[in-house]
Structure prediction request, 247 residues.
Amino acid sequence: MFVTVACGAVSGFHATQSPMMARCLKREKDGRKVFYGAMIAESVIALIWAAAGVAFYGATGGLQQALAELGQSGVVYDISVSLLGVFGGALAIIGVVVCPVSSGDTAFRSARLTIADWFHIDQTNLLKRLAITLPLLGVGALLTQLDFDIVWRYFSWSNQTLAMITLWAAAMYLARHAEKWWYSALCAVPAAFMSGVSCTYILMAEEGFRLSMNVAYPIGALFALACTVLYVFSAGGKKNRQLRAGQ
Prediction:
């Protein structure tokens, strides 16, 4: 679920919205409401659809068969119209369509702003905005020619890997700057979990290294352990240096 629900469980994709949201928020503390609120809302939506799919088709096997026969859009239409009628189903389908469209829109804009900030490109000029936007849209057009299921799997994995990296970075920041050491554990614990998930998935996946479960799971656990040990030593060394400096 933490990999499949790529935008609702532990999401790295929401971090891509930071360059844009930083320009919209009036106060920094509002970021908690915006980002936590978005992730919680998407988690609820994802769980509702997962529950609806399993309940409507009887079990996970029936849902998988329906996905193979009807595709994702067909399953959404079948569930929405059958449970909510024509009007309610139309509203549900519109909601399903709006989410990826709005996500794609904000992703492209965030990518443009990130590139502009990185290379110090002024975005008040329309031609300079187009100079970044058009190549990005070209890359997006090329991706639409690929098998969406494969693209989504790579996106899901890279999304959670980004979340893992961000959580470790946040854990180190808190370890160095927070008043109490255990504040960093709020990020370190999910970071260790996502390290194991991301590593294990890419080792086992068909689009990855296709290793057996008996090999992938131990390597994933060792990778998570190694990341945790490195974090503990790095954070502990920093704290000791700070204590010596204070003395």
DSSP finds seven helices and no strands in the chain. The CA atoms of residues 99 and 105 lie 10 Å apart. The chain has a mean pLDDT of 82. The radius of gyration is 21 Å.
